[in-house]
Specification:
Layout: H1 7-20, H2 24-27, E1 32-34, E2 43-47, H3 49-62, E3 65-67, E4 71-75, E5 78-79, E6 85-87, E7 92-96, E8 105-110, E9 113-118, E10 122-125, E11 128-133, E12 137-139, H4 143-156, H5 165-168, E13 175-178, E14 181-192, E15 199-202, E16 205-215, E17 228-231, E18 234-244, E19 250-253, H6 257-263, E20 267-279, E21 282-286, E22 294-305, E23 310-315, E24 323-335, E25 339-344, H7 349-352, H8 365-371, H9 376-379, E26 382-403, E27 410-429, E28 431-443, E29 450-452, E30 455-458
Parallel strand pairs: 1-3, 2-4, 3-6, 4-7, 5-10, 6-11, 7-12, 10-13, 11-14, 12-14, 13-15, 14-16, 15-17, 16-18, 17-19, 18-20, 19-21, 20-22, 21-23, 22-24, 23-25, 24-26, 25-26, 26-27, 27-28, 27-29, 28-30
Antiparallel strand pairs: 8-9
Length: 471
């Protein structure tokens, strides 16, 4: 059933896994460097940044492994160098400083825009053959940064600048992999309370995230605490991830608006599999940063739970542009997730469309970047060649909430072997050439899928019976 064009991506992912996730023993060749030998204390009070970085730099000279005796290590930004394995074992917690000055400002990309931003707690920045492994804890201790965001959002929203809050509130990510290659993250790591996105893979290649538990809702619900963001990167494997957070769980991104179109780097050859999403904005998300495009993506064996509101989510905006093609999603189970499949090309307008208020002085350069106009002819994402099969959902409110764009319908979708229990079937709007095969919707209100402003829709989903009392 898998589309022939996807075989190269699957093969590449298999080879990638064998190359960069060879197991603990292979990842730990070379000398072992204990951070306590470089002055780390591990009492949760002493700043251990300099001592840990000295151990990392020493390991980089020999291609070694950095280790930690049991303890709590308070630290600012750390930079993992080429050839180094940072091993965080059970009983070890790295906890992030709550002072933003402990996270040096660096050129990066943030939410689709290239700009200077605080470095992450742990960075693999323009390095290769680096590993962050173990079954210990990396704790961003991020509540103080969430509160900064909430304060700035209250100031920005009355001025019609909801779009600015995420960029004004400079919050450190937990792990940043930037312009890097042959990197692994996993082995049982527990990642929690990130100040911003948890694992951000940007402009990178050959990266594996395998076996991490992400929980950013331990100390309240952290805003914008995405789980794993794959951003304009290639040959990426994400598997065995357990996510609880307050935004996107497993997300593909490729740049925002004029800046993303300028960079024009796709996210491609990606496999996401064998993961559970306990609480997030969606089980898997494409966007909303879509400008560079997505292709050769396969996603399978996900279990999505309530209160996650969306199972599969495609979101973009009328200034994003980009494309999605050769997308394969299958074997997804959803329990009490309100919307099974949602697509919108006009997502969250208050956030998506930047307009600088008239008369505003001392305008930051990133405001001007975000407000750069994008012609509508370049601003609508083109989504085509999508195959979604073996979807099982119970307890949903709506099966389909799909909205294309009048001048750019969502094209060439094949949906096969769906079994969905929902209150309502939902709708398709502005789609073209959609084929349904063995898609059964058990709706408590007896509704059938509503199709408007569309063409070439065949084998429409069936609703064999009303199932009152069985939403």
């Amino acid at each position: 059933m898998r589309h022939p064009s996807f075989f190269p991506a699957m093969l590449a992912a298999a080879l990638l896994f064998s190359m960069v996730c060879p197991g603990t023993a292979a990842a730990e060749r070379g000398k072992v460097f204990s951070v306590v030998k470089y002055g780390a204390v591990g009492d949760g009070k002493t700043m251990d940044t300099a001592a840990i970085q000295k151990a990392i730099d020493a390991a980089a000279a020999d291609g070694g492994t950095v280790t930690f005796p049991a303890g709590v290590y308070l630290t600012g930004s750390l930079f993992v160098k080429s050839g180094v394995t940072l091993r965080i074992d059970s009983g070890v917690t790295l906890t992030g400083s709550q002072h933003i000055e402990d996270y040096p400002m660096m050129p990066t990309r943030v939410a689709g825009i290239e700009m200077t931003w605080p470095s992450a707690l742990i960075n693999v920045y323009k390095q290769s053959h680096a590993h962050i492994v173990g079954n210990g804890v990396i704790d961003g201790n991020g509540r103080v940064f969430w509160e900064v965001f909430f304060r700035l959002r209250k100031l920005d929203e009355p001025r019609g600048m909801r779009w600015a809050a995420d960029y004004d509130a400079r919050r450190p990510r937990l792990i940043q992999i930037f312009d890097a290659g042959d990197v692994t993250v996993g082995g049982g790591l527990k990642l929690q309370r990130s100040g911003f996105w948890t694992v951000h893979i940007c402009y990178s290649r050959k990266v594996v995230v395998n076996g991490v538990t992400i929980n950013n809702n331990i100390d309240g619900k952290g805003p914008s605490t995405d789980g794993v963001d794959i951003d304009s990167s290639t040959h990426i494997l994400v598997e065995h991830v357990d996510v609880t957070n307050n935004d996107d769980a497993l997300c593909l991104k490729a740049g925002r608006d004029a800046d993303g179109l300028r960079v024009n780097r796709p996210t491609e050859d990606v496999v996401i599999r064998d993961s559970i999403i306990r609480q997030a904005a969606a089980g898997v998300t494409f966007g909303s940063e879509t400008s560079g495009g997505f292709r050769h993506i396969e996603i399978y064996n996900l279990h999505v739970l309530a209160p996650t509101p969306n199972g599969i989510l495609f979101k973009s905006a009328q200034t994003r542009g980009g494309y999605a093609e050769d997308i394969r999603i299958h074997n997804i189970r959803m329990d009490n997730v309100p919307t099974v499949f949602r697509m919108t090309m006009n997502w969250y307008p208050l956030y998506s469309y930047a307009k600088i208020p008239a008369g505003m002085k001392d305008v930051p350069s990133y405001y001007r970047t975000m407000a750069t106009p994008v012609p509508l002819s370049k601003g609508i994402e083109h989504v085509q060649d999508v195959r979604i099969w073996n979807i099982h959902a119970t307890g949903a409110k709506t099966a389909f909430d799909v909205n294309g764009y009048p001048t750019q319908p969502l094209e060439d979708f094949t949906l096969q072997h769906w079994d969905v229990q929902a209150r309502s079937a939902g709708h398709l709007d502005y789609v073209k050439n959609w084929t349904f095969k063995d898609v059964v919707l058990h709706t408590s209100d007896g509704s059938r899928l509503r199709v408007e402003h569309s063409s070439g829709v065949s084998g429409i989903a069936t609703a064999p019976e009303a199932t009152e009392g069985k939403p």
